[in-house]
Each structure stands twice: as structure tokens, then as C-alpha cells.
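thought: user wants a sequence for this fold. calling inverse folding tool.
action: design(structure=
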């Protein structure tokens, strides 16, 4: 039995011969991981890698979605979007997320007051077109797109495979 989800035929959680982009092709029996989308006021406590997206633009959301479509592991995506005003939740989740991505240009006045604190965290990466504000003095983790996430995901997969092979050698 199969059904169509977002123009992708899905058969019991497996993507069947679908070309996502001209560079990446998924094959039959490739299991895609479960994506947990968490928004305020909810929290999820598990061992999945977590990504906190703070005020992402539509372009950033679409690029992140495309990258997640290539992820085979379960992940948690915490979304602090345009209508959110729960600063306490954002700060709390920032302490448990593995990666924080801030789109500074989309931050409202209240959220911008906490950007400096978040940028001081080593796991925070930020996007901005603002060349005047010296965000680079607080953090060298400026990014221009989300391509680096794919490298992180692939590195985690390689680490998992090497751990599995080490366990089977013993």
C-alpha cells in the first residue's frame, strides 16, 4: 500500500525511487528518520540530535527541510517562529539543543535583545545580511546557508557506522 505525501510516494515509511534534487537520489528501502517538530510551550526529552531554529525565513525553512529529507536518523526540530514570544522557552531549549540557527534579520525587537547571549554559545550559528553590527566579535559562526548541516549529519552517520563495526569486531 502506498500514498502520496508532499508529492513523494511513501510505502510504509520508505521512499521509493524519488529524485529529491539533481544531486541526491534516494533508493528503495532507504529508511528516513522521524522528525519531531516542537514548538512553544512543548519540550521533548530524548537522545535525538536537536536543532533550534530561531525566527527562520521561508528560504531557511525550505533549505532546512530539504536537508532533513536526506537524514536517516531521528531528529528534534525546535521551531521558534515569527509569532512566538515565549523567550523563556527559547532560552531553555537553547540549552538542550545540539545546534542553534538564528536568522538575525527576521528577529523581532524582543528576540534581538537575547541574540548576543545566544551567539555566545559555541553551538550557535547565525545568518544575517547586516554588515554594520559587529556580530562577528561575539561569534565566528556566521553562515550564509545551511549546507554545513549535511556535512554534520553525514559525519554523525559515519561515526555511528564505525561504532557499529567496532562492536561487531569485538
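)
observation: tool returned 170 residues.
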Amino acid at each position: 500500500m502506498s500514498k502520496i505525501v508532499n508529492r513523494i510516494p511513501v510505502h510504509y515509511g520508505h521512499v521509493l525511487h524519488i529524485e529529491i534534487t539533481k544531486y541526491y537520489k534516494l533508493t528503495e528501502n532507504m529508511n528516513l528518520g522521524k522528525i519531531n517538530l516542537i514548538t512553544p510551550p512543548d519540550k521533548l526529552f530524548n537522545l535525538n540530535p536537536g536543532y533550534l531554529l530561531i525566527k527562520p525565513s521561508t528560504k531557511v525553512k525550505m533549505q532546512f527541510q530539504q536537508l532533513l529529507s536526506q537524514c536517516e536518523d531521528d531528529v528534534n526540530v525546535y521551531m521558534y517562529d515569527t509569532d512566538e514570544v515565549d523567550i523563556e522557552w527559547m532560552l531553555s531549549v537553547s540549552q538542550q539543543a545540539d545546534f542553534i540557527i538564528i536568522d538575525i534579520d527576521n528577529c523581532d525587537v524582543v528576540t534581538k535583545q537575547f541574540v548576543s547571549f545566544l551567539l555566545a554559545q559555541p553551538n550557535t550559528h547565525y545568518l544575517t545580511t547586516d554588515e554594520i553590527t559587529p556580530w562577528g566579535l561575539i561569534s565566528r559562526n556566521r553562515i550564509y546557508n545551511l549546507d554545513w548541516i549535511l556535512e554534520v549529519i553525514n559525519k554523525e552517520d559515519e561515526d555511528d557506522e564505525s561504532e557499529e563495526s567496532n562492536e561487531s569486531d569485538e
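thought: summarizing for user.
answer: Here is the designed sequence. Confidence is low (pLDDT under 50) at residues 1-29.
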